[in-house]
Amino acid sequence: MSEQYPSLEGPQCPMPLSHDEQIVIGHGSGGVKTHELIKNVFQKHLGNAILNLGNDAALLQFGPEIPDGKNLVVSTDAHIVSPLFFNGGDIGRLSICGTVNDVSMLGAIPKFLTATFILEEGFSINSLEKILLSMKTAADEADVKIVAADTKVTEKGKSDGLFISTSGIGWVDSDLTINGASAKVGDAVLLSGPIGNHGIAVAEARGNLGFQSQIRSDVAPLNGMIAELIKAVPETHVLRDPTRGGLATTLVEIAKQSQVTIKIVEELIPIDQDVRSACDLLGLDPLYMANEGKLIAIVPAEDAPDALKALHAHKYGREAVQIGVVVEESSGQLLFKTPLGTTRRLDMLAGEMLPRIC
Amino acid sequence: MSKTSINPESIRHTKTIIQEIRRITTKPWNIMEICGGQTHAIMEYGLDQLLPEEITLIHGPGCPVCVTSLEIIEQALQIASLSNVIFTSFGDMLRVPGNKQDLFSIRAQGGDVRVVYSPMDSVKIAQQNQDKQVVFFGVGFETTVPSIAASILHAEKNGVRNFSVLPANVLVPPAMHAILQSPGNRVNAFLAAGHVCAIMGYQEYEPIAARYQTPIVVSGFDPFDLALGILMCVRQLESGHAKVENGYPRYVTRKGNKAAQAMIEKVFEVVDRQWRGIGLIPSSGLGMRPEYKGFDATERFDIEFHELSESPLCIAGSVLRGVAKPIDCPAFGKVCTPSHPLGAPMVSGEGACAAYYRYHKVN
Lengths: 358, 363
Description:
The complex is a heterodimer of chains A (358) and B (363).
Chain A: H1 32-46, H2 49-52, E1 71-79, E2 85-86, E3 89-90, H3 91-104, E4 109-120, H4 125-142, E5 145-154, E6 162-172, E7 188-191, H5 197-205, H6 223-232, E8 238-240, H7 246-258, E9 260-265, H8 273-282, E10 296-299, H9 304-312, E11 321-329, E12 333-337, E13 343-346
Helix pairs in contact in A: 1-4, 3-4, 6-9
Chain B: H1 8-24, E1 29-35, H2 36-45, H3 47-50, E2 55-62, H4 64-67, H5 70-80, E3 85-89, H6 103-108, E4 112-115, H7 119-128, E5 133-138, H8 145-157, E6 163-167, H9 172-181, E7 189-193, H10 194-200, H11 206-212, E8 216-219, H12 223-239, E9 244-246, H13 258-267, E10 268-275, E11 279-288, H14 297-300, H15 316-321, H16 352-359
Parallel strand pairs in B: 1-2, 1-7, 3-4, 3-5, 5-6, 7-8, 8-9
Antiparallel strand pairs in B: 10-11
Helix pairs in contact in B: 1-12, 2-16, 7-8, 8-13
């Protein structure tokens, strides 16, 4: 065997790894790696003329970007969900829809979003791209642009894969007064479709069900449907999405804000049979399960048929129904009529929703 | 808490039964539903609002979360805060207050506390985390015991040595004796819990009905089953009978589930147990037999005892014995709420105070 000598000519340093498969601390350094990540990953999916300018802030001009004479509406929402992917959605879709929906609940038209990504060292860039693609799809559907974004990287173990915080800006006609304090005695309480699906889909993705189900999260941008509703019923009093805490908690919030008693009827509340069965098995109450694509609309009773017609015409409102009425002025409470004809009071969710023993 | 949608036919039958109860009731009667699940369903559907005023439903001590003693809760908290332990529990135990803390606070301080739906999940967690001790909080009445026994037998068979159970199971019949013997007892009849009887049968209630001349009717959990159970109690009371009747025959037989009973018998033996709010009830709990002591978490971990005290405001004991209603408590709904419980019955969905807080009829 002849002796081999290493060549002493040319560069000898090993090429550093590019780390384009997972997040490393260097991606948060603000240097070359950060810029590569922004250019190759974030802008690839989320890029648009304003974001791609690469400035520290986005300039939004009245006139071209925001119509003159409108009121600005701003909302912000942080998204942490475990696991990041679940049946029917993922944290990316959630982070767009959550903020789009929050802005829309004042009757506003959401137009621009900002996003902050908190990434954990070691997070897969492939997963990140899937999530960004999902954000892009949801943003396109909602017709909103991400105009500013930021990325930070935490050390391994200091966060949970990926957190996304988004803020949204939109505008609203100054003569609209849709808010949680506007429910009036006699109003009809409408719900855009069946409840509980998102909560169960996430529980299943966590492996908490112990069985397989086909239940999909309802996560969806509701601004299109809301625009149709407001066009049909400009007199709409309250819009609210029953997210965390579920339908019951959200209606109690509205009742307290508006200082009224709201009465809903159990038999009228749409719940998919498989969601009901899963809740039964798990000892959970669908009235308190989170939704991410449902709308509560409170409208004057005489406008209820028009409102329902507008909701039914939209793909996210096909199963919209009236579930109750605003019955009287009070310090704010939610009443629930059972199938036996008895009435009880519903309260907000106390804390974490816990399954019962038996 | 959750509901199977009850069909219109069942609603109609329930209303018919309630009419019959109203028709035959002539005297005041106190009927105790033993099980917290039944309390919950009664309040959820407002069944109590439909009964004639002569009939008072008394909520029994049948919420395993509520009656688990402060001492055992403190043991759980100590074990759960150990760094090498994954502490697993049914969900609603997490919020039960111990002396100063609950399992949520332990989790917030870094303890690994996980909600599971079955003790078998805990065995699985133990197999996946061989470097940790995995403990299951064995609470519940006779209903949860077979699955806990099965998990211990499974762990034994598969050599899962890092799994153990903190035993806190309690038994229904000794509590019924305690209630019927207590001074001030006003229970005239019992609704026995259908799921407990599905395991244990109802044979063991026959001596109780005979000895105390108290009707006992096995009952289910939906409004129809409960109304039927109440009707069967009232019929016996009005006609002077006192026997055990089965109002839940689609799931319950007199002798119960022999296979499940055999599994319980193999792993557990009857022990005396403290009931929170009630005190020591002889022969009312289950502990591991000597040959399964290796799976007993109290043997495996070194636990210190501190002086234990309950909130002086809380009347949980009287509520659990059926002597007082939650609304009789000065703290109810004021300083004691589901988000800030002073006593265990406000914690679990099955606790009488929590059921009252969530569902009490609108005045």
